Amino acid sequence: MRIPLLMDVDTAVNFDDAMALALACTSPEIDLVGVSVSSTRVIEGTDTARRLLAAFGRQSVPVAPVPQGTGGVGDKERASALAAEFMAQQLVQHGTLTIVATGPLTNLATLLMHYPGIERHVQRLIFMGGWTSQALPETNFSSDPEAVATVLASSVPITCVGYEVTRQCVLRRPQLLPFQLATDAGPKLLYSLYVDWTRRTNVPAPPMHDPLTVALLCEPSLVKTEPRSVRIETGNSPSRGTLYLDPGYGTEIEMCTAVHAPRYLSLLLQRVLGRSTPAAALASETPQLSVRIKAAYRTDHFPGWNLNLNQVGHHVIAFVKDGECTVQDGSGHITRKQSPNESERTDDSRCGERPVDKGYGCDKSPDRGEGMRTYGGGSESEFRSRGPDSSEPGAGLVVVTDALPEEGPVRLSQGGVLYVRPNQSCRVETEPGMAAFWFHFEAFAEEGDGRLITTDSIGLPTVSPAGSNSDVLTAQAQRVWENWMYPWPEGVVFSQASLMEFIGYVMAAQRETEAKRQDLSPMLAALSKAKQYIEARLTETISLDDICAYAGISKSHLIRSFKEVYDMTPVQYHLNLRLERAKQLLTLDYVPISDIALSLGYGSINAFSRAFSSHVGMPPREYRRLYGTRNRD
Description:
Elements: E1 3-9, H1 15-26, E2 30-37, H2 42-55, H3 73-94, E3 97-101, H4 106-114, E4 122-128, H5 139-143, H6 145-152, E5 158-161, H7 163-166, H8 173-181, H9 185-201, H10 211-218, E6 223-232, E7 243-245, E8 251-259, H11 261-273, E9 289-301, E10 306-310, E11 315-329, E12 357-358, E13 360-362, E14 373-375, H12 380-383, E15 410-413, E16 417-420, E17 425-429, E18 434-446, E19 452-454, E20 463-464, H13 470-485, H14 490-519, H15 522-535, H16 544-551, H17 555-566, H18 570-586, H19 593-599, H20 605-616, H21 620-627
Parallel strand pairs: 1-2, 1-3, 3-4, 4-5, 5-8, 9-12
Antiparallel strand pairs: 6-7, 6-8, 9-18, 10-17, 11-15, 11-16, 11-17, 11-18, 13-14, 16-20, 18-19
Helix pairs in contact: 1-2, 1-9, 1-10, 2-9, 3-4, 4-6, 8-9, 13-14, 15-16, 15-18, 19-20
């Protein structure tokens, strides 16, 4: 059974409020029955809410009316009174409703004060606000703490989503890219709101606080809740607006204490993006990684040295400090070419004392795991096969570099990084010799519920060629090794932190390489030009020949590639833009339909009506009757 929902949002200033409303519009579990706006900029917020509802095809959802004024104190009070009246009407009309509040609780407090007995119509109230873990004021509550006190004093069942729970739920560039490429009206509008928000706040990665209030209705298992007794500070002090835990004396509510962040963000993105972007384009949240180093050493490899890394049971990173090597898929036993002047040493007293090991080394420090003697950068115990139970034996190399052969060895020169996943097999050899840092470690990813689990991948390619940050990587690799050799326990902590930073630098270099490759792609550049050409000629009749001539691409490549990237042909994209614009104009009752048809390049009302009916499923007059200005309030 769908959940009848009334939302009270602040879509004037916050991007995550817009995402929360979009999630409610696109979730089959939700029956959105009305929207009100609680904001100091209520007129702007109401306009944004209407635009979002229209963009997601929910124009029929009523929105609370607002007074037309200058935005003074009197206007704010009238706006809250109108919102409360609207909410009361919806509650009485539907019997009982769930209310989600993502902004200040002013409208809800006004509702409770002006409409006695209305509480019995509220099935449940879910609001976003409070920061109890830090005992600090938070924007929603500090805006109107007296309203929070009024709500807490009511008999309404309350669930609170606190600021601390959602701080880990952030959209990063890979997750924002589908919005930028979107062709559907809803995601496109969300991207424009994101651009406006990040321009105002100078924060490029938006936290997704508010949508969780809706997501937990759709999938309650996303969150963990516990009963808590709380109170709100309303005095004139620096703590005004702070929600405190007050066991035994405060108001008992249900409080979210944990969220499964990856599942939550995945649900949010899949719902609001819909068919606008292929599912493969949805990037999951970057895992929160931690590492535990097993061994770290620096060693010289003599000319002709080679090694089969055969299904190692943990992660291995090698950084080429000097010289070069080749890497390719491989399996088998370790082979070792004896250097003419090399003699094997077993003097454990020398362990860790040499700045550079001549083809061998050892580590007996009790703080660093079991001791091992390395032969050309590794030991038999570390590199032997784990046997038939090992997962992914001989997994293929994932090579990310600018110009590499499809088969055969890949050359890795000074400043390059080799990463070998657990149970992956590869062969490393050097003809001229090389000096390298080797790091052996286990990696852990944090689950949404906070548990650490071992992970078989940290998101690095097998081969990362030398880049502009090679000097930075060299210095960082040196720190990993030096900290590992530090004789006190804190050296382990410093070393593992340095390795995390090293991995971060490699990830950043990989991202920059990919960005440059995409920016330099002639096909993507041509498609972008084609898309801009179409969008600039919304009211004109254009042909494929016109688009191809402007973009510098053949007709066959244009049609095939445009459909692969945007999930529709150029002609369909042009038609969709026209008819989406028509839907916007039809909501304005004072604009004649004949003028709309002519303004969009149609030769007659009949031609426009046929195209609109085919696209929308109803004629223009019926669409206006349902969604025109007279039906908004």
